[in-house]
């Protein structure tokens, strides 16, 4: 069965949010999207010998969180509170479950760890899960849908419906807002979502539209619709829940970072505190705090300073611009970033879908050659097949022309 690109985004071949990123984002490649869709339709699978750990680790983290948010588990965690979640036996249990989640995510392939330490990766993953559960205790009343598949239709500009499907990490009832719904999405990678993408990207717009008008677990006993626009949307960058390995200085860029540091200075964060002598110094820091401020974060278990062979400490370099404030704690940043969206966003989504789906249905796919090709399973097909010169044909032509004078060839010219 060959993939029919003319039916893309129809009820029989719904589009996914990841498709839109593959086609129209700076890191995407519409040719890769074409190969992936063709592979799914034909049943042919490009041979894969291993799974990069960064890809499957993210899926494993999602699976661990899903398991801990099951109704019977969440009720126990909510009752036991942070004290229960921070118990060593709970962390040990996460470590036991991680290999199973990783194997499930790898789909039978060997995990390629490269030069990284599997135990360190596992511990970081379990730390992210533990810390986000602690945060959820103060932010959500109860989970409503975890890793929930959905279907939703968006009416395009030309009165045609585009069908979309996807999976939302968590739909929940916000703390203190009974009857309302919110949703969030976990990000386990290194890069944070840019503020412009938070405000205008496809993902939040599609997911918000699905919460309002879509169906979750369609066609199953669990089928449910929420029927209201989400009151809050969060993108959670899980790596910011990890401690730094050593003292680190960075410049504040985002509003959430400034608010996070300010909360630490005011003594409102349980996991991070500001190293300020008194209220007067705290007021001074708050008065000068803003984007562009330099902040130093030191983990609570920071390694001791390096010393010379004779035991004397190395002289510290004089800083050209000392940090405004020093934080001590086991988190790198705020982790929680709000996506402020409204029902009006669907108007722009309609325009984007008309353009993107229209291009796909025309059958136009272009390769985006760059660093991502090294990680692409289709790189050999895309970059080589159909483009290489057939050397055997060239050899036959050369042999046929051997000994033939140029003047003889010109006699046959028309």
DSSP strand count: 13
Please tell me the overall pLDDT. Answer: 88
Largest sheet features: 7 strands, mixed
Radius of gyration: 27 Å
The poorly predicted ranges are 409-414
Topology diagram in text:
Elements lengths: L14 E2 H8 L5 H13 L7 E3 H16 L2 H15 L2 H19 L3 E3 L5 H22 E16 L5 E14 L7 E6 L7 H6 L1 H12 L1 E2 L15 E6 L10 E4 L3 H11 L6 E3 L4 H10 L5 E5 L26 E5 L6 E3 L6 H17 L17 H5 L7 H11 L4 H5 L4
Parallel strand pairs: 1-5, 2-3, 6-8, 11-12
Antiparallel strand pairs: 4-5, 4-7, 5-6, 8-13, 9-11, 10-12
Structure write-up:
The protein is α/β, with parallel strands linked by helices and 414 residues long. 41% of the residues lie in helices and 17% in strands. It has helices at residues 17-24, 30-42, 53-68, 71-85, 88-106, 118-139, 195-200, 202-213, 255-265, 279-288, 345-361, 379-383, 391-401, 406-410, and strands at residues 15-16, 50-52, 110-112, 140-155, 161-174, 182-187, 215-216, 232-237, 248-251, 272-274, 294-298, 325-329, 336-338. The strands form 3 sheets. Strands 1, 4, 5, 6, 7, 8 and 13 form a 7-stranded mixed beta sheet that branches. A 4-stranded mixed beta sheet has the order 9-11-12-10, with helices on one face. Strand 5 (161-174) and strand 6 (182-187) form a beta hairpin. The protein is globular. Mean pLDDT is 88; it is low at 409-414.
Précis, in short:
By secondary structure, the chain is of the alpha/beta class. It has 14 helices and 13 strands.
Using brief descriptors, characterize the structure shown.
disordered C terminus, 14 helices, seven-stranded mixed β-sheet, globular, 414 residues, four-stranded mixed β-sheet, alpha/beta
């Amino acid at each position: 069965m060959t993939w029919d690109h003319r039916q893309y985004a129809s009820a029989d071949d719904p589009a996914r949010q990841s498709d839109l990123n593959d086609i129209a984002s700076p890191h995407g490649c519409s040719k890769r999207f074409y190969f992936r869709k063709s592979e799914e339709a034909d049943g042919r699978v490009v041979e894969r010998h291993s799974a990069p750990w960064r890809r499957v680790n993210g899926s494993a983290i999602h699976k661990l969180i899903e398991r801990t948010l099951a109704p019977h588990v969440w009720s126990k965690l909510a009752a036991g509170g942070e004290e229960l979640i921070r118990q060593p036996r709970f962390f040990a249990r996460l470590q036991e479950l991680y290999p199973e989640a990783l194997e499930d995510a790898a789909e039978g392939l060997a995990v390629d760890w490269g030069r990284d330490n599997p135990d360190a990766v596992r511990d970081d993953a379990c730390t992210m899960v533990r810390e986000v559960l602690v945060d959820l205790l103060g932010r959500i009343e109860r989970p409503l849908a975890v890793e929930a598949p959905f279907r939703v239709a968006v009416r395009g500009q030309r009165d045609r419906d585009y069908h979309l499907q996807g999976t939302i990490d968590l739909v929940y009832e916000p703390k203190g807002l009974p009857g309302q719904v919110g949703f969030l999405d976990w990000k386990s990678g290194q890069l944070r979502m840019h503020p412009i993408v938070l405000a205008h990207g496809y993902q939040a717009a599609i997911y918000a539209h699905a919460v309002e008008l879509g169906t979750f677990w369609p066609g199953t006993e669990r089928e449910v619709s929420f029927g209201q626009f989400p009151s809050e949307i969060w993108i959670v960058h899980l790596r910011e829940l990890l401690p730094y390995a050593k003292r680190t200085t960075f410049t504040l860029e985002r509003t959430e970072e400034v608010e996070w540091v300010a909360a630490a200075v005011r003594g409102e964060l349980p996991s991070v505190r500001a190293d300020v002598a008194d209220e007067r110094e705290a007021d001074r820091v708050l008065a000068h705090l803003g984007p562009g401020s330099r902040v130093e974060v030191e983990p609570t278990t920071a390694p001791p300073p390096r010393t010379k062979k004779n035991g004397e400490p190395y002289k510290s370099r004089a800083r050209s611009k000392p940090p405004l404030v020093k934080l001590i704690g086991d988190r790198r940043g705020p982790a929680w970033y709000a996506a402020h969206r409204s029902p009006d966003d669907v108007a722009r989504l309609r325009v984007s879908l008309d353009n993107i789906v229209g291009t796909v249905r025309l059958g136009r796919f272009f390769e985006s050659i760059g660093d991502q090709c090294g990680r692409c399973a289709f790189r050999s097909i895309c970059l080589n097949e159909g483009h290489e010169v057939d050397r055997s044909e060239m050899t036959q032509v050369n042999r046929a022309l051997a000994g033939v004078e140029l003047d003889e060839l010109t006699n046959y010219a028309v």
